[in-house]
Amino acid sequence: MVDLSRIVKAYDVRGVVPDQWDESLAELFGSAFAQITDAESVVIGHDMRPSSPGLSQAFARGAAARGADVVLIGLCSTDQLYYASGSLDMPGAMFTASHNPAQYNGIKMCRAGASPVGQDTGLSQIRELVESWADKGAPAPVEKPGTITERDTLRGYADHLRGLVDLTASRPLKVVVDAGNGMGGHTVPTVFDGLPLDLVPMYFELDGTFPNHEANPLAPENIVDLQAKVRETGADIGLAFDGDADRCFVVDERGEPVSPSAITALVAARELAKHPGDTVIHNLITSWSVPEVVRENGGTPVRTRVGHSFIKEEMARTGAVFGGEHSAHYYFRDFWRADTGMLAALHVLAALGEQPGPLSGLVAQYDRYAASGEINSTVDDQAGRAAAVKERYTGRDDVEIDELDGLTVTAADWWFNLRPSNTEPLLRLNVEARDADTCAAVRDEVLGIVRT
């Protein structure tokens, strides 16, 4: 039997091409996707990786063979695919492996209206079908196969985002954007066109081999060039997008990183100004400042597990206006509850341009605590090391323990979360405290147990 467990993850398909999957499997995935979603039509987009056009076209053939009419939108960011799925009301598939190296590729799938397809919402069924067909042969095409047509959605995507954030009152801003040779180089010029922004582009050439640096802005080494360019040009702000441009990371006018928690709080305050009393979702690793700012602005914060499927589920359940994660994923009710780094970037630009001060001063009110950042430890026994940490804190009167997602221990002046990686032998530690010394002390104590 064919076993696809190594490439079908919790939220998407991802693996090395052609070693782990190829166009023949992509075609089967297309057929299975159309069958499981019962789609009459499907929209498909792809990133700039060398293998993306062939894989996406194979998927299209598979979907059409099951009777679905296919709309190919070609090169796009992941949030542009979500826009197409939402505005056209079609299930969608995006071919990307985000910031993974060039030999990787993957599929992010959604139902109509950009509703996510994950293990519990169809992905496991799709995998089972593909495994069965790969083993026994694909079913015969339906009597009336679907059509395959092409459509340009970039301008519609840009207009939709620009309609959600008004930058007309902004003062002129100099903005450095590092696209990392990813899809930001495709979307930024159209979204920013005509806005009061002096754009300084970096690595806008679409190149899925990532010749300049990995397109993962959360890794400090990947924003060094952006930081230097912001300082060199005297820019007001720097933005870095990941490979498929659904995440956006921000640096201030000094070239200093702005934490995604501070961005979450800033955007939450803006959304609550438009929608008083609404709910905002945040995952359990975002800063204490996020629920504080939400409450200060009359909203209701809701804490959830890490991961886009959990965020989107909670947004649907609560009707939340916005959601943010420590990983620089930002979710908007006005964007079909999907994540879009570009819309978050427009909010930050608008907030900066509506007042005279620098970005560092603007975000200071949202950056209130000392944080460790995410620290990874390679361990042989994830469960055993996590249990040892839990044992150290169990029974103490001065802490609360919960296991919503990994282990979270909270005291009056600090908290930490320790989570196992789903794909690697790692434990991920995040610590926050009211001062840097306490943060360092808690970090060192927990790491001392984890790395024993």
TrEMBL record:
Transmembrane segments: none
One GO MF term attached to the UniProt entry: metal ion binding
Superkingdom of this protein's organism: Bacteria
Metal-binding is among the record's keywords: yes
Domain Alpha-D-phosphohexomutase C-terminal: 374-447
Keyword tags: Isomerase, Magnesium, Metal-binding, Phosphoprotein
GO BP term, pick one: carbohydrate metabolic process
Cofactor: Mg(2+)
InterPro entries named among the record's database cross-references: A-D-PHexomutase_a/b/a-I, A-D-PHexomutase_a/b/a-I/II/III, A-D-PHexomutase_a/b/a-II, A-D-PHexomutase_a/b/a-III, A-D-PHexomutase_C, A-D-PHexomutase_C_sf, Alpha-D-phosphohexomutase_SF
Key word Lipid metabolism present: no
Residue span, Alpha-D-phosphohexomutase alpha/beta/alpha domain: 7-132, 156-255, 263-369
A Pfam family matched in the record: PGM_PMM_I
Family to which the UniProt record says this protein belongs: Belongs to the phosphohexose mutase family.
NCBIfam families, alphabetized: PRK09542.1
Protein name: Phosphomannomutase/phosphoglucomutase
Organism: Wenjunlia tyrosinilytica
Taxonomic path: Bacteria, Bacillati, Actinomycetota, Actinomycetes, Kitasatosporales
Gene name linked to the record: manB
